[in-house]
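Lab manual, section 2.4: Encoding a predicted structure.

Procedure: take the sequence of the chain (371 residues), apply the prediction step described in section 2.3, and record the output as structure tokens. A sample record is shown.
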Amino acid sequence: MSRTQETRTEDSLFQPARIGDIELSNRIVMAPLTRNRAGEGNVPNELNLKYYAQRASAGLIVTEATQVSAQAQGYANTPGLHTPEQVAAWKKITDAVHAKGGRIVVQIWHTGRMSHVSFQPERKAPVAPSAIRADAKTFVVGEGFVDTSVPRELALADIPGVVDDFRQTARRALEAGFDGIEIHGAHGYLLDSFLRDGSNHRSDNYGGSIENRARLLLEVVAATTAEIGGGRVGVRLSPVSPVNDSSESQPQPLFNYVVEQLNQFGLAYLHVVEGHTGGPRDNAPFDYEALHQRFDGAWLVNNGYDRIMARQAIASGHADLVAFGRAFITNPDLVYRLQHNLPLNVPFADAPLYGGVGEHGYTDYPALTEA
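Recorded output:
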């Protein structure tokens, strides 16, 4: 979405838009929401299909984070997109969303050091830019919440293989019927951990300077856009969010550079988490408009937006799209409720946010209208 003299009002939130090669019915995005409900073999199931189809009125659905390889997993029951069974299962979901007029992209990730040996092939240590354990936990079935494992430094010789995992997953995403992909470059996972000096202590071409630390992310973006076209690729960033033990001494120059470099790929959109993910928006000083000015594509904002804030963000040009997370969990008809200023459902007190069995807290939130 190139910058134009487009006239917007607060109702523009509910009007169609085009991002890259993707036409949207409105500017409301369902944010990626890990729910830990994939089936055996990390294959999406019929309940996942129902969940996404219920929310097809979103201008764009960004799926829960989805593994690019077996090594990329860091949490229980999160889906993959690296086996034929996973591709086939996702195809049923994209068909169901498209049948209702929706658009859906898959967020693809490698969790990096946010993992545990229980999830790794042959119980090897997870990979990371450096052998620094994240001060964080993950859930292992049968063990409960456990500390993440001490990772091993990703060998220089193995980096091209990781880049190729993302490239191949981008191709499989189109085979599975997705309208595009979102590369997870945020929240302390592998690509983000390479960006940050708190987790990247390398002394080779992937460490040290900002240019070196950004190299892996840019290689992944170059590979995926060459494979499926920049107009079907988005990237998610979280400049100052400290989740998953993320830290960076100079976030502004780092992300100014990253966005300048990303701009060359003709991306569909950039998805920026403002502030502390799921927490305060002003946890650290940061000039988001400096990033926005460096990017020519659609600008998607995230974190704590409500109806008033979203309408103002679109009308003012602060954003082209607004993502809603937990509100989409409890309101499958969120677009309708926002458009008509109707009350939102509250979370069920007896249903888990992550994991769970059956429909309760997943597909049984009431809707006022069909998606």
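Check your result against the sample. The longest helix spans residues 159-175.
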